[in-house]
Design a protein that fits this description.
single chain; about 240 residues; Rossmann fold; S-adenosyl-L-methionine binding
Length: about 240
């Protein structure tokens, strides 16, 4: 059996979800089997990142995990640009470093608190399913910091799990998502275990709340460029 397959929630959970070595070891598999159309959303993210990255520009990936997207962006990079990935998980960054070396990619990954980091003026910020793990009280502050660090017309591309404030629709969206996970081979037990582990750790907003937050933070425009049920990819333009 492939030890890179996600089996994290096949046993009883003893703690809240965290990005430790156990999760880092299977994270790429977890993403592809837990996030519908993950590869497609990443292709769109890469497309808009490359469109907006100028010569000698900066791109930051917040919560870069194992650096897969940064490596993909580097592979198709035509401009001379600096690609920086930030994460607070040592386990994720250790795997990211090994992958970067294996692919010979010119990508810099750093252990950092994305709320405190001193950003250079950038063309592009990316965050894949990271904002939802930032406490709501400081989430808008982070977006203000991102907006302030972007050049005019720079972009912030972010993917998030979203909720609906229509209770029946929200329930149906969750059921639709659980059906997807079952199709990927996850058991009812694993699905329940992960939901319990993420309780109060992952706090999603609605599509409208994410767009309002971006506009309140100083972006001139924000809209959805990809969505499947309760997963969405947004682009915010300064």
């Amino acid at each position: 059996m492939n030890d890179k397959n996600d089996k994290v929630f096949t046993k009883p959970i003893k703690k809240q979800f965290e990005f430790d070595e156990e999760v880092a070891a299977v994270f790429d598999d977890m993403l592809e089997r837990s996030v519908p159309f993950y590869k497609e959303s990443q292709k769109i993210t890469k497309f808009f990142a490359l469109k907006n990255l100028r010569e000698d520009g900066y791109l930051y990936d917040l919560g870069c995990s194992t650096a897969s997207l940064l490596i993909e962006i580097h592979r198709d990079l035509h401009a001379k640009a600096t690609l920086i990935g930030l994460d607070n998980s040592k386990a994720m960054l250790a795997r990211a470093t090994r992958k970067i070396e294996a692919f010979g990619a010119d990508v810099d990954v750093q252990e950092a608190d994305i709320l405190q980091y001193d950003y250079k003026e950038a063309d592009v910020f990316i965050s894949n399913y990271t904002l939802q793990f930032v406490r709501p009280l400081v989430r808008e502050e982070l977006l203000k910091k991102i907006a302030a660090s972007l050049r005019e017309e720079g972009v912030f591309i972010f993917s998030e799990k979203v909720i609906s404030h229509h209770s029946k629709l929200n329930k149906d969206l969750i059921e639709c998502y659980y059906d997807f996970k079952k199709e990927q081979g996850y058991s009812e037990y694993e699905i329940m275990q992960k939901r319990e582990a993420l309780e109060n750790v992952l706090v999603p907003y609605s599509e409208e709340e994410n767009m309002t937050m971006a506009k309140n933070a100083g972006f001139s425009h924000c809209e959805v460029i990809f969505r499947w049920a309760n997963f969405a990819t947004f682009i915010a333009i300064k």
